[in-house]
Each structure stands twice: as structure tokens, then as C-alpha cells.
Amino acid sequence: MSVLSTSPEEAGTSIPADPVSADAARPLGPVVMHRLAEMHAYVSALREQGLTVGLVPTMGALHAGHLSLVDALQQEVDTVIVSIFVNPTQFAPGDDYDSYPRTLDADVELLATVGVDAVFAPTPAEMYPQGELRTSILPGLPGRYFEGKTRPTHFAGALTVVNKLLNIVQPDVAAFGEKDFQQLVLVTNMVADLNLPVRILPVPIRRDTDGLALSSRNARLSETERVTALFLSKAVLAVQRQCVDGALPSEAKRVGLSLLEAQPGIEVDYLEIVEPQTFVPVADDVAGAARVILAARVGQVRLIDNAAVEIAGPSTEENA
Fold first, then answer.
1. Would the pLDDT of 12 be above 90?
2. Reported pTM
């Protein structure tokens, strides 16, 4: 396909002054921009026409889960922008930053099939012109647990780049998937705490037909590992069903862990039922909405999953 794009050397030469009226003359596919100045000019033109703007922040290697974010956002705004940026500040030494897939051309072609208007694909030098970060955003107490404990620098890097993207694009709405549920909560907190003028749109997890939560990292699984990885979603579903059936959180969690521990090739990082805003594990004497969260390695690939659960709480007989 033909994509209107600008290289870093050609910044500012191909952004139409009127993105909407220029659509008929524009090649099929989204406008692709690499420079902040290009993005600012594009959004300014949209604002002059009174159009609303939505943003889907991604690290690329796009799949149907990302497209579900686009679809949800298209119901909310006039123009959808997808950012593609493999953010180095949210990877710790030893993480998979260097091996993380970078598939910009394929991503743009995929986004063209669902009518995305623009792609913002900056370089690290464009996003971090000073090199090392001089300022970062700390995630607060909910970010210290689970993913925050396993990857101590991850959320500070993620929140900082999300804040930068929101400031650059200045969307009315930004869509985030519930698969990265802890990140979704932290981004929502950041927007509220810093009074950022954007609405965060949560989008449910998109799963494959066999139940596996869609992830860019799934492509790194071998055929055998992918079959093994199905037990992650099975474990989450088992915990969810146990809670529906009235099991206490500790009982429901044991069922999920037993299922995972019986499968060779799975190394569990955590499986817990938490309060969905604080990420404090729930006790057996509570009732109400909670979240079962899971992280595990299948081979060399670390995967996460989660689901909403409703805890019935101790029975009347137990309280007597």
C-alpha cells in the first residue's frame, strides 16, 4: 500500500493543512509522522476544524487486541491517532528491549485496514533529546506491587512516556487495554492526580479463539509453548468461576495455582486476587469487586493475564 509518510529528514513537508478535506487526494492509509512538530501541526489542523481526537498508545507489533482499542475509540472521537514507540525507559537491564519486535510497515498496513487516521512513530532521540531522563513520574503505592515489584523501573518509564504522549497529542480520549490492568489503573490515577485534560477509555481484554489473551509476545512462543500458555487463561477462568460459586479468595486462588503447577513449562511469578484500585490482596472476610491477576513465564516468554471477579464473602453460617 502507499502510505503518506515523512522521514526525520523531511519533517513537516507532508502534513496536509486540512487533514479532512485532503483525504480525497491522500494515498490510502494513515498519515505517518516521526517528529513532534509534525504531530503538533496535524492536531492543530484538526482542532481548527472542531474535530475530536483520540489516541491509542502502543509499542507496535500490532494485533487484533490493538485493533479492538481502535474500534472502541472510533465510537468516541472523530480522528484516531495510534502512537508506535518502543519505549526504552520502561525496560530494565536484561529485559527484552533489543529483541522486542519492530514492525512499523506491517503495523501501518494493518491500521489502514481499520481506518486509522494517523500514526505517530517517533525515534528515541525525538522523544528523549537529552538522552537520560531528567524527570520521571513515580507510580505511587499501587505501582509497588506485582508488576512494579518484579520490574521496579517499569511503571515509572511507562507513566512518563504516556504523559509525554498525552502532552504531545493532547487527545480528548485515550484508550488502554485491560490486559495491562495495573498499568491502566496507574495511568488513570496519573491523569486524575495531575489534572490532565483527557478521558481514559478502558477496553476489555481481547482473546484468541482458544482463550489466550492477545499479546505481542505470543509470537515468540513455540507451538508447544503456546499450548502450554493456554493454562494461564484457564487458571484465571478457574479462579473466576470459584468466586462465582462462593469460594473464599484463598480457596479460589489455590485452585488456580494447582492448575498451573501441574503443567510442566510454566513458572509462576504471581497469581493473586486483589482490590482493583489499590492492588492489595483481598482477605477472606471481604466481599465485592476484585481482580484476579497472573504473571508467569512459559519458556523464555513472560505473559500476564487477569479478569474481574465478584467475591460473595463469608456465608451467614460462617459469620455466626
1. no
2. 0.88
